[in-house]
Amino acid sequence: MADATIEKAGLLIVDKEAGITSHDVVSRCRKIFNTRRVGHAGTLDPMATGVLVVGIERATKLLGLLSLTTKSYTATIRLGASTTTDDREGEILTTVDASGVADDEIASAVADLTGDIQQVPAKVSAIKVDGRRAHALVRTGADFDLAARPVTVSRFDVLATRRGDENDTAGVVDLDVAVDCSSGTYIRSMARDLGSALGVGGHLTALRRTAVGPFTLEHARTLDEVREDGRVSLDIDEAVKISFPRRDISDDEAESISQGRWLEPIGMKGVYVVVDPHEQAIALIQEKGKRASSVMVVRPATLR
Fold first, then answer.
1. Which of 135, 151, 32 shows the shortest CA–CA distance to 90?
2. Active-site annotation holds for 45
3. 149 Cβ partners below 8 Å, 6+ apart?
4. In a designed cystine with 188, which of 30, 169, 204, 233 is the match (CB 3.0 to 4.6 A)?
5. Of 15, 45, 87, 237, which is the active-site residue?
6. What is the pTM of this model?
7. Residue range 140-163, pLDDT digits in tens
8. Is the dihedral of CA 211, 275, 64, 4 positive or negative?
9. Phi then psi for 141, rounded to 5 degrees?
10. Cα end-to-end distance, the chain, whole Å
11. d(C-alpha 48, C-alpha 23), whole Å
């Protein structure tokens, strides 16, 4: 029988609540699972909620190998005000009556921000400038600019439009939107750029991540739910089979790769998982030249 460390190793898909950092989630998971070996992939800002991928025990090694290149969000963008952070937590810089902005103008500006675009990240992002995080530089009062970067927004849909907020604040327009995008896309920057294009300013008031790569809210549980059952969402076997392309191998090949030897390459690109006839994930493999070598053993020979 596998030991307890192996059994609790895997990926935890957390539905992060608002008001806590991604590091807070890691700290709480360390207590829940009684281990220091916890890490996360794809930081979420404190105001954001939704999918955060957390690795437990040996699965922390997976985090750097996962191809989490696509992300999905639902968000609310407020037109009529810009802020220092491009979201509701910043100080208001400008206010403009946005009530006259027509739906077709919004649709046109949204279309311009869809597809392959150049985006300037928010200054409160974690991007490094001369070795320091941009958000840390902002707090010092430093004056700096961030370069535009290529990103892909494959979906930017307006789901609902509300003119005037719940307090009947005149002049604001709230847009509930759905976004599918490449990793590195900042939704708060999309809010800023949409407001700028419409000449009224804009910022983000709500953000929920609904998917990261293959992991969705269907996989996710709140930290309270995790405390209740103390289980990972996906053990390592399940996690690699859902996350990587698959190659089926024989028992002899499985024994060979689990002992540290290599397989014959078959022309598969990138990292993929090899699975034995018993549906056990054996290792993550990458082909180089005449060898298909392990980059991570999922199931050591002692567990086969």
1. 135
2. yes
3. 118, 119, 120, 121, 184
4. 204
5. 45
6. 0.87
7. 666 667 788 999 999 999 999 998
8. positive
9. 85, 10
10. 10
11. 13
